[in-house]
């Protein structure tokens, strides 16, 4: 079974430029998460989707970050404009929420460097 | 107070020993608990989850949960050099918010 797919794996951009990340979750998983991870820290949730609905985006900096999950499958996370402090690894995870079972599985991440 | 706290380490154990990793959490209503392993430059990999008080064993790994003490631990028996990684504790609250600790770096010395 294929895992969570993310692209690109690496991205280097200049500040004030836009950038977009793409995620394809594990087949059948109804919940999709975007996290940000800084070096030496645990992942921090940016947004959680249940199917196509964003049910938790309280940590998403909405002035520059946006996300969408059309048709409840793939998702895109966008930053516009990027700032130096946005340099981090952006992780996508997915899970199938059924009763108490809802283990999350992560993709390989996108390492963003803003110069 | 951080929501999920872990000793950052590094924790160093000899090969073949038991490694004990600890995690405390602040939200008493938390229901689900996870341990992830993260190798340097890689993404987190789920290795254990536990939802009920007590112990849960899977191969060389044992997760222990004590909700009254708001404490969850991971034991790794017969530690191998390949177990050297950062171990992340993750706690999910009643409203499905997942919070991660900063991780404990484990080194297993041959």
How would you sum up this structure in a few lines?
The complex is a heterodimer of chains A (about 120) and B (about 110). Chain A has about 120 residues and is mainly beta.
Q: Can you walk me through this structure?
A:
The complex is a heterodimer of chains A (115) and B (110). With 115 residues, chain A is an all-beta fold. Chain A is 0% helix and 48% strand. Chain A is built from no helices and eleven strands. In chain A, strands 2, 4, 5, 6, 9, 10 and 11 form a seven-stranded mixed beta sheet that branches. A four-stranded antiparallel beta sheet of chain A has the order 1-3-8-7, with no helix packed on it. Chain A is globular, with a radius of gyration of 14 Å. The mean pLDDT of chain A is 94. Chain B is an all-beta fold and 110 residues long. Chain B has strands at residues 4-6, 11-14, 19-25, 32-38, 45-50, 54-58, 61-66, 71-76, 85-92, 98-100, 104-109. In chain B, β6 (54-58) and β7 (61-66) form a beta hairpin. Chains A and B meet through β5 and β10 of A and β4, β5, β9 and β10 of B.
Considering the chains and any ligands shown, give keywords for the structure.
heterodimer, A: 115 residues, mainly beta, seven-stranded mixed beta sheet, four-stranded antiparallel beta sheet, 11 strands, globular, B: 110 residues, six-stranded mixed beta sheet, five-stranded antiparallel beta sheet, 0% helix
How are the SSEs ordered, and which strands pair?
The complex is a heterodimer of chains A (115) and B (110).
Chain A: E1 5-7, E2 10-13, E3 19-24, E4 31-37, E5 44-50, E6 53-56, E7 65-68, E8 75-79, E9 88-95, E10 105-106, E11 110-114
Parallel strand pairs in A: 2-11
Antiparallel strand pairs in A: 1-3, 3-8, 4-5, 4-9, 5-6, 7-8, 9-10, 9-11
Chain B: E1 4-6, E2 11-14, E3 19-25, E4 32-38, E5 45-50, E6 54-58, E7 61-66, E8 71-76, E9 85-92, E10 98-100, E11 104-109
Parallel strand pairs in B: 2-11
Antiparallel strand pairs in B: 1-3, 3-8, 4-5, 4-9, 6-7, 7-8, 9-10, 9-11
């Amino acid at each position: 079974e294929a895992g969570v797919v993310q692209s690109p794996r690496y991205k280097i951009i200049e500040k004030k430029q836009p950038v977009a990340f793409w995620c394809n979750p594990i087949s059948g998983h109804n919940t999709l998460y975007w996290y940000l991870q800084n070096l030496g820290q645990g992942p921090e949730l940016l947004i959680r989707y249940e199917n196509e609905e964003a049910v938790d985006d309280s940590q998403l900096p909405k002035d520059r970050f946006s996300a969408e999950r059309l048709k409840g499958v793939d998702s895109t996370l966008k930053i516009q404009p990027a700032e130096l402090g946005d340099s981090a690894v952006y992780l996508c995870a997915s899970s199938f929420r059924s009763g108490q079972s809802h283990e999350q599985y992560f993709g390989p991440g996108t390492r963003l460097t803003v110069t | 107070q951080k929501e999920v706290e872990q000793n950052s380490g590094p924790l160093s154990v000899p090969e073949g020993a038991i490694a004990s990793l600890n995690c405390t959490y602040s939200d008493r209503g938390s229901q689900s608990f996870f341990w992830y392993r993260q190798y340097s430059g890689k993404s987190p990999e789920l290795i254990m989850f536990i939802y009920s008080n007590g112990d849960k064993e899977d191969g060389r790994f044992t997760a222990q949960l004590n909700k009254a003490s708001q404490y969850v631990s991971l034991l790794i028996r017969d530690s191998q050099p390949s177990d050297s990684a950062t171990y992340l504790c993750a706690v999910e609250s009643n409203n499905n918010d997942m919070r991660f600790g900063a991780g404990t770096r484990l080194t297993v010395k041959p």
